[in-house]
Amino acid sequence: MKFDYKILLILISAILVACASMGTPDGGPYDEEPPVLLKAVPAIGATNVKNGKVILDFDENIKLVNAFEKVVVSPPQIQMPEIKYSGKRVTVELLDTLIPNTTYSIDFNDAIADNNEGNPYENFAYYFSTGEVVDTFAVSGTVLSADNLEPIKGMVVGIHSCLDDTAFIRKPFERVSRTDSRGHFVIKGIAPGNYRLYALSDANQNFMFDQKSEQVAFMKTSISPFATEAIRPDTVWRDSITIDTIRYIQYTRFQPDDIVLRAFKEELFVQYLVKNPREEHNKQKLFFASPNKELPVIEGLDFDIKDTYILEKTAKNDTLTLWFKDSTLYRADTLALKVTYKVLDSLGAFIDRTDTIYPTPKRTWDKVLKREQEKYENDLKEFMRKAKRSPDYDENNPPQYIPKTKVLKPRFTGSSSMDVNANVQFMFDEPLLSLDTSAITVSIKSDTLWVPIEYVFRQNGDNIRTYDLFAEWRPGETYLVHVDSATFKGLYGGVSEKFSQEMKFRTLEEYAVLYLTIPGTGNNAMVQLLNSSEKVVQEIRTENNTCAFYFIKPGVYYLRLFIDENNNGKWDTGNFEKGIQPEKVYYYNRPLELRALFEYSQDDWDINQPLDQQKPLEITKQKPDKEKKKMNRNATRKFK
Description:
9% helix
């Protein structure tokens, strides 16, 4: 038998290829290590530096991630530093003249990462001094929004050695930091001494508070940075779930490191007439930029406007609506009006300002009449078309067409399913000329009968087109609201039609009750029950450190309160010039799941907990940025 060497060679080749395939990893191990700094010019911590150019060389190709947002230079630079990278090198050139005897720091945060896998070189800060000494003290803390304790990202935080508050509005910060996604900041390279600390949204990037529209925070007392020796635990993990050892590492702790700044926007009074639309001939609106403490004075330029309109206004007098009663007035296509209101002069005193306006509607009165005539003619044609189809139609004696009365249809808030504490209201599209409360009947259902009950019907404060209906609404009962035709007559001829609505109020068994005891609040706290969107569901003032919420629908809720120092029932912002801090806001630090038919008592709300640990993460909108973690892909890498 003759052996075929060709077949043998093919088999051997196949075996070698298969073995090679099994033994070769797919692309080799992943790079999971951050770049390593090999050299810095000038060296880190160098003294007597005269040149503002810094060169950093790494062991591999690198990239900068969000450098404009993350890299912070201190002292702050008026001219934006040039930050470049190429290959393994990062170059930073400070364009401002270096200040003598000053420590400079360039905090990169985690902006430097390797080019291939994006492994960040975390918490890297470079520093040098133009003098003999490198200052090493640091202070840190958190900036929160004063009204809702939201962490504020990107806020500039800085210090002044001049303890006069005017330094904040006259000079740039001496040293700065910028808050991260948690609202956290660290100001480094501080010399021993006393400082004032501020935070600023700094829209124009000049590092001082020169625009009242900027968000701002300040401390009333100065700070003195210091350092102590401390020990912290360091956990070494054997794997993702098993602890190998816990080591205790000695380190230098720079303090204060628990500062909390509450940032706010001042209430600005910049008053002017924003716009004055005349949407229709009979309605004139005036929109103001700020609330009016006094009602503006409105006059006709060439006519007497007194008693010719009904005024509708918002609670802050910042939006006014004139409903004209005089038809000879509102038929005019153009009205000349003078509007006088209060503004602040350069010295902060209120003075009168008068604007003359000539509001004109979109359509002339002739076009309005033409449209009404066209509608009348179309309605007449339709009426006659239907009449001729009737078997009783007499051509010699045709029926007379009577135009329909304009219908005034109220919006009624009552429904077949009502909360016990709901408002029952009637709302109208125009002011009422008259109303007849005797034509309104409210009845309670007793077995199969409707039994009339007493009620109160009245205008809702300054809301001239909204009316409240009050009665003894009992849980679990059914009511009938009946309104006869022509009960309401509008200012412009509209008449209401007959109307009935049944309302079934929920039973007490469908609600939860929450009792709160909050030490330290006395009678001055406004406590708010919030839903998952942080919308206020109920609000009540404390009495002797306690309050209660009734008729709560089942669900998940949150709690917030503010100390109402001036007892005006609303949260008030601060004022830097007057040294006034915003009213304090606190959160209960976890959600409450409330179920129907249960009464809950909470007495563990400690408002003295650190403010940055109070707001539940579930309703915190500014979430921390996701940390860049090593994926440890090599541990799970498969080889073929």
